[in-house]
Write a structure and sequence with these properties.
316 residues, alpha/beta, DNA polymerase, domain 1, 2 domains, seven-stranded mixed beta sheet, 14 helices, 7 strands, binds S-adenosylmethionine
């Protein structure tokens, strides 16, 4: 299935004003370049640095962005290395950064990529095929405790322990269909009928673990703030509560002055707000978008604007 970008209107409305007179826009999750093309169309003086860790995404985006060729630089890399990638290109400071998190529809729909519990394919799930560890390494290599921890935390799956035990008992597990069947069998029959496909949460957990998605995001957000010019914006669209929590916390933290505990007599942290949060409650796709693009139903958009002043709060 072709990738339909989510919340394009609000994303462009938030990012385009700062790009009116030109400047660099960074799409840190280029995918199929739906958002990137929309921003370039609305801001005809702007240039794009498009980042993705998936070589297929870069190849396809290169074609989609052909009409803007002279304004586009595409880079293969992880957004946790955002500042270094931009420094190498001499592109910072920039006038907008977008994170549209997770996987794209073409990644999800191609059984050879192993992201989906529907159909059958290798247990891969690597966004970048050069990454050393695949989902199969985790499924067949992690201890029961580690599997239960990953599935419980990253999948928010209440039957994580039972699933981990079932996986250990079924090893070696080869292929997505085999794993989906093991998970289905581990979940009590009475609860299988609710909450979507029984393997959905386990597959999400494995995907997040394989690609270290939460760590990537936590590392990238402060860098995005570092590289922004004052008055310019970072937009993050997330698709599940773990990601959204990381974005929300980082934005709240970076928008506060001193973060010392309230009982400290004087400030020892020296922190000053670096951003202003633009949307207090996340923007959700309107009903029509949710109905026509099921991938959008869980989407939450948060945005913040760089202030002229501020001192980094460091890692959270
Ligand atoms: C939801 S898709 C983006 C879709 C895009 N906005 C569009 O309109 O087509 C997310 C993309 O981000 C990429 N990605 C996810 N995590 C990444 C990371 N840590 N570093 C670089 N790219 C990443 C994925 O490979 C995927 O292509």
């Amino acid at each position: 299935m072709e990738h339909r970008p989510v919340l394009v209107g609000p994303t462009v409305d938030l990012l385009a004003p700062a790009l009116e007179d030109g400047g660099v826009f960074v799409d840190a999750t280029l995918g199929r370049a739906g958002h990137a093309a929309a921003v370039l169309r609305r801001a005809p003086m702007a240039t794009l640095v498009g980042i993705d860790r998936d070589p297929d995404a870069l190849e396809e985006s290169g074609k989609a962005l052909a009409p803007f060729r002279d304004r586009v630089t595409l880079v293969r890399g992880r957004f946790a290395e955002l500042a270094a990638l931009l420094e190498r290109l001499g592109a910072a400071p920039v006038r907008g950064v977008l994170f549209d998190l997770g996987v794209s529809s073409p990644q999800l729909d191609d059984p050879r990529r192993g992201f989906s519990f529907r159909g059958d394919g290798p247990l891969d799930m690597r966004m970048d095929p050069a990454q050393p560890a695949s989902a199969e390494d985790i499924v067949n290599g992690y201890s029961e405790n580690d599997l239960a921890r990953v599935i419980g935390r990253l999948g928010e799956e209440r039957f994580a322990r039972r699933i981990a035990k079932a996986i250990i008992g079924a090893r070696p597990v080869r292929g997505t269909a085999a794993l989906a069947e093991v998970v289905r069998g581990a979940i009590p029959a009475a609860t299988r009928r609710t909450g979507g496909h029984p393997a959905r949460r386990t597959f999400q957990a494995l995907r997040l673990e394989v690609n270290r998605e939460i760590d990537e995001l936590a590392a990238a957000l402060p860098q995005a703030i570092d590289v922004l010019e004052p008055g310019c914006r970072v937009v993050a669209i997330s698709y599940h509560s773990l990601e959204d929590r990381v974005v929300k916390r980082r934005f709240v933290e970076e928008s506060r002055d001193c973060t010392c505990p309230p009982d400290f007599p004087v400030c020892t942290c020296g922190a000053h707000a670096r951003i202003r949060v633009l949307v207090k409650r996340p923007i959700r796709p309107p009903e029509e978008e949710q109905a026509s693009n099921p991938r959008s139903t869980a989407a939450k958009l948060r945005a913040a604007e760089r202030l002229a002043t501020g001192v980094s709060h460091g890692p959270s």
